[in-house]
Design goal:
Helices cover about 35% and strands about 25% of the residues. By secondary structure, it is α/β, with parallel strands linked by helices. The longest helix has 20 residues, at about 405-425.
Length: about 450
């Protein structure tokens, strides 16, 4: 049988197995309903790690093990107190954001400054007004702006301008406070809390078009913590020392099931491992599956993995990150600055008889980024064409019912078929990029300046 016919037969088998399987949905449900929110360093994350080790072993992967690491953790205290005290009196529901420090016992009373979307220009224009105040901004990064502006950047700009507190208002409807780390792997300088869109709007109405004063008290603290990466692999038959790494983070935020972000990605990784293990002998290079811990509070697990395996990075052919597959159809790959992958992906899509969207815009807020900093070619499996922004992500509404069986099946089928090509085909030997070139890619999108502002610029890029 000719090579093309063999590949077509393998595609048919992988597609059939993926599209008839409920294994991915079973993993998703167990992570969410069985393990819980899986916040970094928690007993729930530990339970999820044990479950994933067992899933990798059942799938038939080799060298299944956990790789532990320590980090600066955070523990939520009792619910914050947020009150408007002038010009009207009003109590508001809120949540503390990860790494929020405690206020003094009596709390803080501050003037509230509304900065809308909190774009860099908003902070630059009002920088003298920010000092000594509580700053409230929305979670929106509007379409008119030329890049995504992350929550951590907005917080960092508030701190740099001398703010005394940070209020993060969700821009989606639904009485949903949005969570997310305000610093990465370290205690934050000023209190940061999240409020729903409706609560934030009520605060603004209470100000009656003037100046509001708020009382804020938080009760959270930093703690020493441990997590681990969960690792297993299918060894290549011809070039076993060359590796394709595929992974996603299994931790979530403690206010939700973290179903789309990122139980959906982990379920896709586990299901893909199971599918390929049925045909492991076709892989010429090793495919290593990694479920990363502690991503949501600073990409800590992937940083630990890259540091631990630094000597192997030159042999990593490609890192494929699976973060938030969600519930919008149309899966493709974002190659994060490896523009040369575009014709290769088009050729692969033609052979696979699929429409596979391509993108190449770097984002520093998921686990692929630590590999990119090491010069390793990276891409993200993602949904194209869905709603821009997080939607229900990082809220209590990120639940199992938001993720569809069809999406998980489509994602696993595409990933499994693509990994066969990534591991086997000469076309996918992408060039590792030197530090200077990585810096140029990031600088094109102002990412180096953003990372400096946040205090998260990796030493390798300094």
């Amino acid at each position: 049988m000719r090579k093309a016919e063999l590949r077509r037969e393998l595609d048919a088998q992988l597609l059939g197995e993926a599209l008839l399987s409920d294994e991915g949905m079973g993993v998703l449900r167990e992570l969410c309903d069985g393990c819980g929110s899986r916040f970094a360093g928690s007993a729930e994350e530990q339970r999820a790690g044990d479950y994933l080790l067992d899933q990798f072993r059942q799938a038939g992967l080799g060298k299944v093990h956990g790789e532990p690491f320590r980090f600066q953790g955070w523990r939520r205290g009792r619910k914050p107190v947020l009150r408007v005290v002038a010009p009207r009196r009003l109590s508001v529901e809120s949540i503390a954001l990860p790494y929020c420090p405690p206020t003094p016992q009596r709390g803080l009373e501050l003037e509230l400054l509304w900065l809308g979307e909190g774009m860099p220009e908003d902070f630059a224009r009002r920088r003298h007004d920010v000092r000594g105040k509580a700053v409230m901004v929305t979670s929106d990064s509007p379409d008119y702006y030329h890049r995504w502006v992350h929550r951590a950047e907005k917080y960092a700009r508030a701190v740099a301008c001398g703010a005394k507190a940070f209020v993060f208002m969700n821009h989606y409807d639904g009485l949903l406070e949005a969570t997310g780390a305000i610093r990465f792997n370290r205690k934050a300088e000023i209190p940061g809390i999240g409020v729903s869109r409706e609560a934030g709007s009520r605060i603004l109405r209470a100000a009656e078009g003037g100046v509001a004063r708020i009382h804020l008290a938080t009760h959270d603290k930093p703690v020493a913590a441990r997590s681990r990466n969960i690792v297993g692999e299918l060894r290549g038959t011809q070039h076993p020392d060359e590796v394709v790494v595929v992974g996603g983070h299994y931790d979530g935020h403690d206010i939700s099931q973290a179903a789309a972000d990122n139980a959906s990605g982990v379920a896709t990784v586990v299901e893909t491992a199971r599918l390929l293990a049925l045909h492991w002998g076709v892989l010429k290079r090793t495919v290593r599956f990694v479920c990363f811990g502690a991503e949501e509070i600073g990409l800590i697990g992937s940083a630990a993995y890259v540091a631990r395996h630094a000597d192997e990075m030159p042999n990593v052919r490609l890192m494929v990150n699976v973060d938030s597959i969600g519930s919008s159809r149309g899966k493709g790959f974002d190659f994060q600055g490896w523009d040369e992958a575009k014709p290769r992906l088009a050729a692969m899509a033609g052979e696979m008889r699929e429409s596979i969207p391509f993108a190449s815009r770097p984002v520093p807020y998921s686990d692929h980024f630590n590999f990119m900093v090491a010069g390793v070619p990276v891409c993200c499996l993602k949904s194209f064409g869905g709603e821009r922004g997080r939607g229900f992500g990082h809220t209590a509404a990120d639940t199992v019912d938001k993720v569809s069986r069809a999406d998980l099946r489509e994602a696993a089928a595409l990933l499994a078929r693509s990994l066969v090509r990534f591991a086997n085909d000469p076309a996918w030997r992408l060039r590792h990029k030197p530090k200077a070139e990585i810096r140029r890619i990031l600088d094109r999108y102002e990412i180096l300046d953003v990372l400096r502002t946040e205090g998260t610029l990796p030493p390798a890029l300094r």
